[in-house]
Amino acid sequence: MVYSRPRRIDALVTPSLQAELSVDLPAHPCDLIRKAFIDELFELDSFSGELAGLRTETANALNEAAKQKPALPGATSISLPTGCEALVEALERLDLALRFARWRRENDAFVRKIIQNVLGRRPKEGEPAEQVTLIGKLLSLEATVVGAEPITKALVRCDRLKNESKRRRAAQKRIAEYEIASVALANLMELGNLADQQVDQLRSTLRGDAANWRSRIYVSSFPSTAHELVDTSMGRKGQLGLLVRAGGVSAPAQHVSNASALRASLVGFFFAFWE
Fold first, then answer.
1. Cβ contacts of 110 within 8 Å, gap of 6 or more
2. Radius of gyration of the chain (CA)
3. Which of 49, 163, 175, 258 is paired with 200 by a 20 to 30 Å CA distance?
């Protein structure tokens, strides 16, 4: 006789039974209903906002409907030799799963009543809508939302109109400020012209005084070829330009004057500027 090695218990059952053998069921089938109706349903994102408040009401309705719940059939006594604890645990789980299935089959009317009292159903056309069950409350909320939709759209448009009016008033205020700035800039332009006139007057005075000082401190050895200082211009970066004239022809001093004349022109300019 050939003896084969005993196989594991989970290898001898179908996959559906293997799943039951690895899970501890609650004490009563109504606990499974509670898990489905309360825990799993209200974990959905749809019930995570304002609808989360329905969880307590639904749980209270389930407690009321399950007060007279039928008892679960008694467990089957399982006795095996020492060393078979894992097999005993698996058989007890399997027995509990079978008793759950038997309870559900024998109490179908009770389960349907729980579903009717807790979840409810969508009323047929022409039937009045009840507002006690979860579906009834959701339908009532849907009717309220549909009824308030025109008001909601009107409020949205009012907010949009308010924002547009605010932007328009801001643009009008900005245009008014532009008008004030335009008038002020016109006055500033006149101020700039006045400053230019003052600068031109100062340059004219400086040019005459510089020429006067030059004539006082320098006399050319040949008066017939002497150069007359006619202009002392200054650039924006402080560059000094000396313009001299002889015989009706003007030229930059550094090109036509000798060193003594050029030095006298600079000293005359600095004396005039100091004055």
1. 69, 70
2. 54
3. 258
Residue 107: how many CA atoms within 13 Å on its side-chain side?
A: 21
Closest listed residue to residue 74, CA positions, set 53, 89, 95, 55? 95
| Same domain, yes or no: 111 and 207 | no
- Residue 152 · residue 161 · CB < 8 Å: no
**108 within a domain of the structure (yes/no):** yes
Token digits of residue 149: 């939709």
**31/111 same-domain check:** yes
In a domain, 173, yes or no: no
The tokens of 256 are what? 């036509």
For 69, the token pair is: 């719940």
Low-confidence spans in the chain with pLDDT less than 50: 1-6
Helices (H), 119-227: 134-217
Examine the fold and report which residue of 119, 149, 169 is the final residue of a domain before the chain moves on: 119
Element (H, E) at 106: helix 85-106
Instruction: Give the dihedral of Cα atoms 201, 205, 206, 211; nearest 10 deg.
Output: 140
Per-residue H/E/C for 11-76: HCCCHHHHHHHCCCCCCCHHHHHHHHHHHHHHHCHHHCCHHHHHHHHHHHHHHHHCCCCCCCCCCC
The Cα 59–Cα 116 span in angstroms is 14
Total structural domains within the chain:
2
Would residue 182 count as lying in a domain? no
Structural domain boundaries, residue 96 = 9-119
133 Cβ contact list (under 8 Å, min separation 6): 61, 116, 117, 118, 119, 120, 121
pLDDT score recorded for residue 266: 81
* Domain end among 119, 150, 170: 119
